[in-house]
Recover the amino acids of this structure.
């Protein structure tokens, strides 16, 4: 009989809760520069107050927890207060959403390997995780990026990034925080879907080898990978079914059944396309997959919301309605039952 410590059982339970009931995650962990860049698109003030107001808009959307299980937050966000004086962490919990935190501090050039990156943030992470756990945060996320191009990725880049991801995961589980491991093969470039398949397969196999070496409890993690897609500059466009087939087959080759769930990043895809890809995977292959297949989108859900809100109080309700619609659509895609052609009318009564 397997022995699981009380702390690790909490970690496992968090992983299960995050992928239960056909829900998904909302990535709202944009760094300050990234958030400001998005705000600038729509004429929204690039201030801490505006960022707080926007994230409060998200977390106070009525009914959001029917479709969103957890929210990945940013360090600035967890230290801000909502308009009622409560912390945004408390606001998430009160709304029925499990709060998590992005803990990497971004990428830098990998020395000696041009055009390749390494993710930073291990220094002091143990202490930060202790603080985050004390604040009520239950999971964390770390992103590694792998570029595809002439002569890249190198084995050194893949191995180094996956070792760091595994070290991060070990520190999280030690602190009683559930780690999301995010190895992203980037869409930038003109590579084919087959090249993406080959690189993603190598990345995932390396990742799980490193997780094993670090004694990670796979029942207490979630995987946040890219979908298997051709580069955005590739002139050949693959069908939704081709992307679904390539992605599921790649995952089945690499991801152990012990992992509770796979929560895709959108990776710069258009929101509708990302949702349709997820829908097709679940529609065609749900019975073959040993893990839940869900979403952890940011831009794919949020950009239409920002376009409506524009930083104005009078636009809060329609922006929340759009958020709820986008969240429901992705929840439907977990069933393989999403249909963009059937768009319900916005019902303002649920916000009264």
């Amino acid at each position: 009989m397997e022995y699981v410590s009380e702390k690790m059982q909490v970690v496992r339970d968090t992983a299960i809760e995050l992928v239960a009931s056909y829900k998904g995650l909302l990535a709202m962990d944009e760094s300050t520069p990234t958030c400001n860049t998005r705000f600038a698109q729509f004429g929204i003030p690039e201030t801490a107050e505006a960022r707080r107001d926007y994230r409060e808009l998200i977390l106070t959307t009525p009914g959001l927890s029917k479709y969103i299980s957890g929210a990945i937050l940013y360090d600035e966000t967890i230290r801000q207060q909502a308009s009622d004086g409560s912390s945004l962490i408390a606001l998430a919990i009160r709304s029925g959403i499990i709060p998590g935190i992005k803990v990497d501090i971004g990428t830098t050039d990998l020395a000696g390997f041009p055009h390749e990156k390494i993710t930073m943030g291990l220094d002091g992470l143990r202490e930060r995780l202790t603080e985050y756990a004390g604040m009520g945060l239950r999971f964390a996320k770390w992103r590694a990026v792998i570029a595809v191009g002439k002569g890249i990725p190198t084995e050194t880049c893949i191995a180094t990034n996956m070792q760091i991801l595994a070290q991060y995961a070990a520190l999280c589980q030690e602190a009683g925080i559930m780690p999301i491991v995010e190895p992203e093969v980037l869409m930038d470039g003109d590579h084919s879907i087959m090249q993406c398949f080959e690189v993603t397969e190598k990345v995932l196999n390396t990742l799980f080898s490193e997780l094993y070496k670090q004694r990670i409890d796979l029942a207490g993690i979630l995987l946040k990978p890219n979908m298997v897609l051709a580069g955005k500059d590739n002139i050949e466009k693959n069908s939704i079914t081709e992307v679904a087939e390539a992605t599921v087959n790649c995952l089945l080759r690499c991801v152990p059944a012990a992992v509770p769930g796979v929560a895709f990043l959108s990776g710069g895809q258009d929101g509708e396309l990302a949702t349709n890809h997820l829908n097709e995977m679940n529609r065609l292959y749900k019975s073959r997959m040993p893990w839940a297949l869900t979403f952890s989108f940011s831009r794919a859900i949020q950009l239409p919301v920002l376009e409506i809100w524009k930083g104005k109080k009078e636009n809060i309700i329609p922006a929340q309605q759009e958020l709820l619609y986008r969240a429901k659509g992705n929840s439907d895609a977990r069933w393989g039952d999403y249909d963009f052609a059937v768009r319900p009318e916005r019902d303002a009564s649920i916000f009264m």
User: Anything to note?
Assistant: Confidence is low (pLDDT under 50) at residues 347-352. The first strand starts at residue 24 and ends at 27. The chain has one domain: 6-336.
